[in-house]
Amino acid sequence: MSRTYTLRRRAEQQAQTRLRIVDTAIGLHSTVGPAQTTFSMVAEHAGVQRHTLYAHFPDERSLLLACSGLHMERDPLPDADPWRAIEDRHERLRVGLNALYGWYERNAELASCVLRDAEFHDLTREIAGMRFGPYFSAHRQVLGEGLAATPHAMLLVALSYSTWRTLTQDARLERAAAVEAMVEAVYPAGGTRAR
Questions:
Q1: Domain boundaries of the chain, sorted by first residue
Q2: 85, 5 Cβ separation under 8 angstroms
Q3: Which among 9, 42, 102, 147 is least buried, having the fewest CB atoms inside 10 angstroms?
Q4: Helices 175-186 and 149-159 sit at what angle, rounded to 10 degrees?
Q5: Where are the beta strands (DSSP E) in the chain?
Q6: For 14, phi and psi rounded to 5 degrees?
């Protein structure tokens, strides 16, 4: 066996181990949340020794960065830039909310745990702000352009994960109905449309 082959095989095994650790941690973040996920739990569930885990991720921050990075690579939040081309405000909001609510549906368990933990866990708040913040800021900017204070406040309500969860999980509305309810809340019929 050549040395090159052996080194390549070792690198592949290390990459597989690293991915298994990250996938395991993401699964735990989706159930118990990042704040309650310990290195011992990750090592046990991933089937690795703690020293192997520490060899890949020396601290909690490095693991959270890897998890959030991989998750956002696999399923990024919707990009607001294409929405700019939609001239009709109602349709722009409808398209934006539909895309965002679709992401919430696909990521409900993880988003719930991460957003909950970000309320009290500094590192989760930091990483969530870094990964989600630019997307959410762009959503607010593109969908809120030209809105007066009250409609803008309703837009912030509409964009919230908690609003999506209340409408779809608690009230059992289909996504399309939840989107329409929020479009109507931001742009009430006969009410102020923008400024």
A1: 3-73, 76-186
A2: no
A3: 9
A4: 160
A5: none
A6: -65, -40
Homologous superfamily of domain range 3-73: Tetracycline Repressor, domain 2 (1.10.357.10)
How far is Cα 172 from Cα 157, in angstroms, rounded to an integer?
A: 18
Measure the CA–CA gap between 104 and 56, rounded to whole angstroms: 30
What is the amino acid identity at position 16?
A: Q
Helix/strand/coil for 150: helix
Structure tokens at 163: 């609003």
Give the HSE-up count for residue 139: Cα atoms under 13 Å, Cβ half-sphere: 23
pTM of the predicted protein model:
0.89
Tokens of residue 152, six digits: 């803008």
Amino acid in position 3: R
